[in-house]
Specification:
The complex is a heterodimer of chains A (411) and B (232). Chain A is an alpha+beta fold. Chain A folds into two domains: 3-52 and 276-409, no CATH class; 106-236, no CATH class. Chain A has 15 helices and 14 strands. A six-stranded mixed β-barrel of chain A has the order 3-4-11-6-8-7. Chain A has a two-stranded antiparallel sheet with strand order 2-12. The radius of gyration of chain A is 32 Å and the shape is elongated. The two termini of chain A are 25 Å apart. Chain B has one domain (36-59, 88-228): P-loop containing nucleotide triphosphate hydrolases (Rossmann fold). Chain B is 34% helix and 27% strand. The longest helix of chain B has 16 residues, at 179-194. Chain B is globular and about 50 Å long. Chain B starts with 6 loop residues before the first strand and ends with a strand. Classes of the chains: A alpha+beta (411), B alpha/beta (232). The interface between A and B is medium-sized, with 22 and 25 residues.
Chain lengths: 411, 232
């Protein structure tokens, strides 16, 4: 019997017994739903991390000079040692900026939580940053209204501020914020610009911030005098960034008077470093997935095998008739294998559709991003077919070996 | 034209191992059937006529003895070779019709062609033609449960004929039919025989057997009598 014919026949049988078919493919359905949904979420987070986080949030070809890594899960001993490291100073920032011999732009940065007010409106717990004027360029921020502060304003420490999109909306509610006066910790600043919306990272808004010159009055609460949180250094290309990192490391080691045997007591962080950490989380998620998926597929396979054994028993007479009319063993084998595989693939298809919907719903209702990975759809279909064939092998073989005379006598 | 007889059977035996004892259903059957014969195989139940029918239809293999069909030795063939012989050489008509209940008359008739590897459009054409031959051109798209007993048996006959088999092999073809319908089916058989079709029919009813031109009677697994007769 031709292959397409066999599939058509299988679909007919499955359709004529909707209820039974529905129950029998539920295991495969759940397994594949799971596969697609989890892979979509992981893939979504992946593209989020690489494109948005590494590109926009961190900055392309950018590294950070810090006292210790920003995102790291370490044992308490390490943490205590890190806490004893000297802090990064404005002098460090200036020395690094002056000492790197490849073209780079740099900005120092110090942040703290503060309260902003505009007339009656209050915004609490806003991240207020004191930074150099190159900060916006390094961060790849697009200014949607107004401008950023100039080098002169930065040097003079003028009380001017650039707001995140959401914060500006909250305080000004549709009014033009440019030129208005907001109070940060009760000191007045003039709003000179608003940054285009950055969206959110795992549900945390990236648009609730205010940036003022490092020398402006924000210096009083973001850090002790002469201390910065980090220095941002952006090169023009990846190779230049690597050179700049080596030079920055040498400058810092010599400033700190470190002997060759001593480890760095500062850290140069790149987005790759953070992506490494993410990669580990990613691998754990993907490593757990096969286990979860295979449990439901094994259960699904057993259910399909049982259904197929029942089908062979119920259709013994049909098998006898087909054999009497000239069906060979392999014709019968193929008929039942195709039926089992079709059943499983139908389950897998429904699973794929449900998985995609589930991922989209999760993406819409939770901070988790989702993007459906094409390979996961392929894997879903192949797994479905594989489970069907594996589960159908024993029943199909039994059917193929039936004796036609005996089978036709069967009621 | 092949000068060999259609069927040549020599010393055919078939034993069934029933665990505690061996039942000897056939104890050495010799039988030759020429082309264009219409043979009835008769005998009381337990005489071995169903066993002989299964062997002649290549549904079963003999314990010993030879079976030559169209000059080819069939006894000793493997499973898949037998399937091919059944598909090409033999058209079955059963007492209980043995149609697939979920399939239409047309699809039932197409089945042997599917296993012969005939492509879909050609299959449909030949199946429709076979149904027309038995007067069911208007019932092609009906399922078996929408047809009367006589119509079902006609579908089965159409299915048996669709591959132009050497033998039309009928096992109690009127066993589940009333006498009027039985007569109709016997007329169909007579007509097919008149067109040159070889017909072998197993029956235990004497008035059905009298439609045949030759009656072979089995008794205790052996040929008891072999009589030529005029058509009824």
């Amino acid at each position: 019997m031709p292959f397409l014919e066999a599939i058509r026949l299988a679909l007919q049988v499955i359709w004529s017994q909707k209820m039974k078919s529905g129950f029998s493919l539920i295991g495969v359905f759940i397994g594949v739903t799971f596969l697609i949904a989890v892979v979509s979420i992981v893939a979504g987070m992946n593209s989020y991390m690489t494109e948005k986080f590494a590109g926009t949030f961190f900055g392309m070809n950018t590294f950070h000079l810090r006292r210790f890594p920003e995102f790291m899960d370490v044992p308490p001993e390490t943490w205590r040692a890190w806490r004893r490291r000297p802090r990064i100073t404005t002098d460090d920032a200036a020395a690094v900026a002056a000492g790197i011999r490849v073209p780079v732009i740099t900005a120092d940065q110090s942040s703290a939580r503060a309260t902003l007010q505009y007339q009656g409106k209050v915004a609490r717990d806003v991240e207020v940053t004191g930074a150099g004027e190159k900060y916006f360029e390094i961060k790849n921020y697009t200014i949607e209204q107004g401008r950023t502060f100039t080098a002169q304003e930065a040097r003079a420490g003028l009380p001017v501020v650039v707001l995140g999109h959401e914060l500006a909306d909250r305080l000004f509610e549709g009014q033009d914020p440019i030129g208005k006066e907001v109070k940060i910790q009760a000191i007045p600043y003039r709003v000179i610009g608003v940054v285009e919306t950055q969206g959110n990272l795992f549900g945390i808004s990236l648009d609730k911030f205010a940036v003022a010159p490092a020398a402006s009055p924000v210096k009083r609460f973001v850090n002790p005098p002469g201390i910065v949180d980090l220095v941002l250094i952006k090169a023009r290309s990846l190779p230049e960034m690597q050179l700049a990192m080596e030079q920055a490391e040498a400058i810092m080691r010599s400033r700190r008077g470190l002997r060759p045997s001593e480890d760095n007591n500062f850290v140069l962080e790149t987005s790759e470093g953070i992506l490494d950490t993410w990669g580990k989380i990613n691998r754990i998620l993907l490593a757990a997935l096969p286990g979860l998926v295979s449990i439901s597929l094994v259960v699904g396979g057993i259910v399909i095998m049982n259904i197929m054994l029942m089908a062979v028993a119920e259709r013994t007479r049909e098998i006898g008739i087909r054999k009497a009319l000239g069906a060979r063993r392999r014709d019968i084998l193929r008929q039942f294998l195709v039926e089992a595989a079709t059943l499983a693939v139908v389950g897998a298809m429904i699973g794929i559709a449900t998985g995609i919907v589930l991922a989209e719903v999760l993406a819409a209702t939770t901070p988790l991003p989702a993007s459906v990975a094409p390979w996961s759809i392929l894997v879903g279909v192949l797994l479905g077919a594989g489970v069907g064939i594996a589960a159908g092998m024993y029943p199909a073989n039994r059917a193929a070996r039936l004796d036609p005379v005996e089978a036709m006598r069967h009621e | 034209m092949n000068r060999e007889p259609l069927i040549r059977v020599h010393g055919l035996t078939r034993d069934y191992d029933m665990g505690s004892e061996v039942v000897r259903a056939l104890r050495g059957v010799d039988l030759t059937i020429q082309r264009n014969e219409y043979v009835a195989i008769m005998g009381p139940s337990g005489s071995g006529k169903s066993t002989l029918m299964n062997l002649l239809g290549c549904l079963d293999t003999p314990t010993s003895g030879e079976y030559w069909l169209n000059g080819t030795e069939v006894s000793g063939m493997a499973d898949d070779e037998l399937a091919r012989v059944r598909n090409r050489e033999i058209g079955f008509v059963f007492q209980t019709f043995n149609l697939l209940p979920r399939a239409t008359a047309l699809h039932n008739v197409e089945l042997p062609l599917i296993y012969a590897g005939v492509k879909a459009s050609e299959r449909r054409r030949r199946a429709a033609h076979a149904l027309a031959r038995v007067g069911l051109q208007d019932r092609m798209h009906h399922k078996p449960n929408e047809l009367s007993g006589g119509q079902r048996q006609r579908v089965a006959i159409a299915r048996a004929l669709v591959n132009d088999p050497s033998i039309l092999l009928a096992d109690e073809p009127t066993g589940n039919l009333d006498s009027t319908t039985s007569a109709e089916i016997m007329e169909v058989f007579a007509g097919l025989h008149a067109q040159g079709q070889n017909v072998i029919m197993v029956t235990h009813e004497a008035d059905i057997a009298k439609h045949a031109r030759r009656v072979v009677t089995l008794h205790d697994g052996r040929v008891h009598s072999d009589v030529l007769q005029d058509a009824a």
